[in-house]
Prior knowledge:
By secondary structure, the protein is mainly alpha-helical. The chain is built from 21 helices and 2 strands. The protein has a two-stranded antiparallel ribbon with strand order 1-2. The protein is globular and about 70 Å long.
Amino acid sequence: MSAIALTVIGLGAFALGYIFYSRFISDRIFQLDPGFETPAHAQEDGIDFVPTNRWVLWGHHFTSVAGAAPIVGPAIAVIWGWVPAFLWVVFGTVFFAGVHDAGALWASVRNRGQSIGALTESVVGKRARALFMIVIFLLLLMVNAVFAIVIAQLFVGFPSSVIPAWFVIAVALGIGYVLYRRGVPLLWPSVIALVLLYASMWVGDAVPVSLPELTMGLEAPAFWVVLLFVYAFIASLLPVWVLLQPRDYINGLQLVIGLGLFFVAVLLANPTVVAPAINTQLPDGVPPLLPLLFVTIACGAISGFHGLVASGTTSKQLDNEKDVRFVGFLGATGEGALALAAILACTAGFATLGDWEGFYTSFAAGGVPAFVQGGGAIIAMGLNLPLHFGETLLAVMAVLFAATTMDTGVRLQRYIIQEWGTIYDIPALTGRGLSTSIAVVACLMLAFGAGGGAGTGGLEIWPLFGTTNQLLAGLTLLVLSVFLMKKGRPTIYTLVPFVFLLTMTIFALLVQLVGFWEQGRYFLVFLDVLILVATIWVALESLGALKRARAEVRTARAE
């Protein structure tokens, strides 16, 4: 199978979905109103609520949701063959992810920028809100802990990525200053920032940074994890225009260019997809394709974390409601393109089927290393660049997206804790400093909980990340359906994805529960049961609210 064919089909489907389906949903279902005053204007505070250029906001949203997960998930899932992964990414992106992401953004904008968890109270009820926010907090805990460990391992495995990954912070601070304090137009700061970022990659490639075995008493991965959370603590307290927005915007441009280079390399090199379409020779220990495919590939097809970002930070910066389509739908489409690139890198980036089988010897063998190795080979072959630089380019891409997701994730955890402080009248929790400290300490405890000084404990809960993520996406679609029903709008476009996701993810949660129990992993059993009970409870509450809303609409029409 030619990688070019998959590229054309995949990107063509994404383009058609954005041009036609997103316009239909935006105009007919959400009925976006350019005259509606968004929270960014109504509640502007210069810190979290800031009206933002839609290109800059798209960069923030895109890079916040496009962390390591749209790389890791597809890079693992291709062990079942490229066909299931490809079909789920394409159809999931077009018919699931866009509606979910843009819908969460629109519903939050219509409710004073409330997060999807807090919004559940007004749409469904207080009990559902409390349970939903527990699920959200657990997911954010997993995202931040796991992504910190993924970045730390990339720093150790690819030391050439260290300099550009940290240098981008200085570039972002400069961009934020010239845009918001000097009023400089966007074009030239963007060009200069990109030139500096790619120059830093050459520097990083020439001067890799490796830590000694022990740094301040910590092993290298553990030290990086601690340093990343120190940075995330500081970054989450800064006004969004200082670092979060410009960093995400530059990373968004970098991803677009990086993906462009990758797909051009595919067209020039025309590599063959050596992985099987359907893999019938699975290594021992690989779980069944159904239902695990739909939770292994979460981000890149549909992801509950996207709804948290859309309703957590993005909705507070939206300048005009019409931008919901551009930011929400196009953000989901961009992540689908990243997941497609991951599939191509991990199936066409190996010389032979034997090489591919030699790499994919277990279910955990894929992930970011497969993406970096395979994608680096394609870039080197297609663009005639050194293999090591191609790997550095992709490693930096993975690090930057995981890091921006951490930035946003810690800020979202702070929002959740502050909302709890407001809901339960605990004034101490409403302060930014204490709420951020609680979030960071909780993430560090999880990251180090099972891994000691190596800081690998967060990976213990990775099996639950995908399932929790998809359950959250399903619940977000259900809450959105109730919101639409109360407005008298069609709900089929959100309810069909909800039913599919809830069925597959509860099935997967039960399969994982049995496996955790048999393996004696009782902490994961506890988390699994907690998430399962909360999910079913929220779903029942929401379905009841949906039924009541339908009855109210029928009564109103009869009158």
